Amino acid sequence: MVGGSGMFDSNLIVAPMAGGPSTPELVVAAAESGAIGFLAAGYKSVDALATQISAVRQSTENFGVNLFVPDQRPVDQGALAAYRVELQTEASRYRVELPELAGPDDDAWSEKLDLLTAQPPRFVSFTFGLPSSRVLSTLQRQGSLVLATVTSAEEAQQATELGVDALVLQHPDAGGHSAAFLDLEATPWSGSLHGLLKAVRQLSSLPLVAAGGIADSAAVSGSLQAGASAVQLGTAFLKAKEAGTKEVHRSALDDRRFGRTARTRAFSGRWARGLENRFIREHSGAPSGYPQIHHLTSELRSAAAAQGDADGVNLWAGTGYSLARTATSAEIIAELSRQI
Ligand SMILES: Cc1cc2nc3c(=O)[nH]c(=O)nc-3n(C[C@H](O)[C@H](O)[C@H](O)COP(=O)(O)O)c2cc1C
């Protein structure tokens, strides 16, 4: 059993990982090992999310659901159109048709909120932005504890003033998308995760969850000693037996050809960290434009994965990826909590 205090009865959180890795099996396995797992609502239909929530509820109530907050910022249509032209070589390579550029979409935001309001999970976390105060108070009234993901002191200040129950502090070493929402072009936090914890502690008394680059038991206990109430790990679970990570992604994590991670906008139009591959190198000038670029590259990514070509797939991973183990979640959790 992983200990915990305050609002978390465990101090180890298995991160929400949209796009496949988060499964009901992973969330249940986390709960059974004394950790807290999150379902990832991002990219899913409401029906698929409802099915996953029901599946988890057969075994546990100790879980959370994570939502992408839609971004209403205008995007540069000219830059998007130019990027679509650039991607024609990829379309030929993988023999797919690029779709026309889509308009903004909100990832079924209100339908997902309605579902969570009707069947409140113990925890709801947000990334890519903050919910409105109306949405926040509705969820809290229904009994959910609400976490906001932040990447800077300024974002932590806003989330604290809004009245969320806890903050997930995401360091840029994290795998997957950056949760940044105030300034998408801002230079990411350049200090350590412990430095981020310290900076946010000076302006917020909320429970803090440390995330990003935590990959072994020493880093877990170090973050807790540095004042985090819990830690949230994603990459460490990408190769877990219960994760839904694609085969091409799992094997790339073990492939010495991919020797480091990089931040990129090439796959989705939003900064994210993944194993540096050909696609990232060849499209280093990709513009900002989420979710339009996510939709634009969707077929390309699927075709590359189907062809087993890891060089055309978004291989999200944090800087600690070489420590990720192929094992059951119970084994991974036991190892990570060895020093707490
Ligand atoms: C494959 C993948 C998908 C992710 N998807 C989400 C997501 O849907 N929502 C979210 O809030 N964070 C997501 N994240 C980020 C994690 O919540 C967390 O911040 C990150 O994994 C922590 O860093 P680490 O990967 O070094 O452990 C994702 C991370 C990965 C690796």
Automatic annotation (TrEMBL):
<keyword id="KW-0503">Monooxygenase</keyword>
<dbReference type="Pfam" id="PF03060">
    <property type="entry name" value="NMO"/>
</dbReference>
<dbReference type="GO" id="GO:0016627">
    <property type="term" value="F:oxidoreductase activity, acting on the CH-CH group of donors"/>
</dbReference>
<dbReference type="GO" id="GO:0006207">
    <property type="term" value="P:'de novo' pyrimidine nucleobase biosynthetic process"/>
</dbReference>
<keyword id="KW-0216">Detoxification</keyword>
<comment type="similarity">
    <text>Belongs to the nitronate monooxygenase family. NMO class I subfamily.</text>
</comment>
<dbReference type="InterPro" id="IPR004136">
    <property type="entry name" value="NMO"/>
</dbReference>
<keyword id="KW-0560">Oxidoreductase</keyword>
<dbReference type="GO" id="GO:0018580">
    <property type="term" value="F:nitronate monooxygenase activity"/>
</dbReference>
<keyword id="KW-0288">FMN</keyword>
<dbReference type="InterPro" id="IPR001295">
    <property type="entry name" value="Dihydroorotate_DH_CS"/>
</dbReference>
<dbReference type="GO" id="GO:0009636">
    <property type="term" value="P:response to toxic substance"/>
</dbReference>
<protein>
    <recommendedName>
        <fullName>Propionate 3-nitronate monooxygenase</fullName>
    </recommendedName>
</protein>
<dbReference type="InterPro" id="IPR013785">
    <property type="entry name" value="Aldolase_TIM"/>
</dbReference>
<keyword id="KW-0285">Flavoprotein</keyword>
